[in-house]
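ingest -> validate -> predict -> emit
validate: passed (alphabet ok, no gaps, 274 aa)
predict: started
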Amino acid sequence: MDNKISFMGANLVAQQLDWNMTEGWNQGDTAANDWYRPIDTFEERFDAFVASAVDAGFDTIDVWHPQLSWKWATDEHLAAAQRVLQKHGVTVASYGANYGDTVETFRRANEIVQALGTNILGGQTSLLFSDRASVISILKEFGHVLGLENHPQKSAAELLEQIGTDHDGVIGATVDTGWFGTQGFDAAQAIRELGDNVVYVHLKDVRAAGAHDTCAYGDGVVPIEDCVTALQEIGYTKPISIEHEPEHYNPFPEVARSRTRLLELLGRGEPSRV
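emit:
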């Protein structure tokens, strides 16, 4: 399989907290927004994020919304982000976010996706359920695809129901294998059931069902190898995002282990001992 392997920006959720996030996800989200928002320092800080992914062996990234939020990003921020990406020769696979609950915020998110040079929105928006027609219209206007990311959904069937069939191909699934693991559902089975509805993948492992304690591939309960097999079976050719967001330590060493393991599973690396 020739899928590109992408580094998920949300892996760094605890970075601005010295890798010790004690008050939950919103604490890390807020700290990251505060870190990246000031335009005077944005280019330098966004550059550091991209460079860290490059140093870890990636040439493709997923931009997590606090790193370039639709809430505060100006055209000046977008231009700076484009300079950084061009400087490092890095492409963006997806823009990961909760895209708000209004037509205006969803449109702005699509403008950011366009500026980043991708077409995948891998996340969630309540607008899909309150004004589905506008979501579909905006996606068609921009030529983008919304990959609805599973978090609370406990099965592929539940996600398929929310994706629906009236969208002309602009709504699909961003499969988060870790969240299916948290919900106690076989992520590989989910991939097979979703089939060509899969438009993006966050390949993630978690230590146990019932919680969302992420870990390196092979250290948890998600059938990572079978997930990769399932992706091959459904003909998935888009990037695969390595996602691992520990709350109390630096994820880079384990992300490197996971990348090595994924390359092996894709038939593009030396056998690892992971």
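The mean pLDDT is 96.
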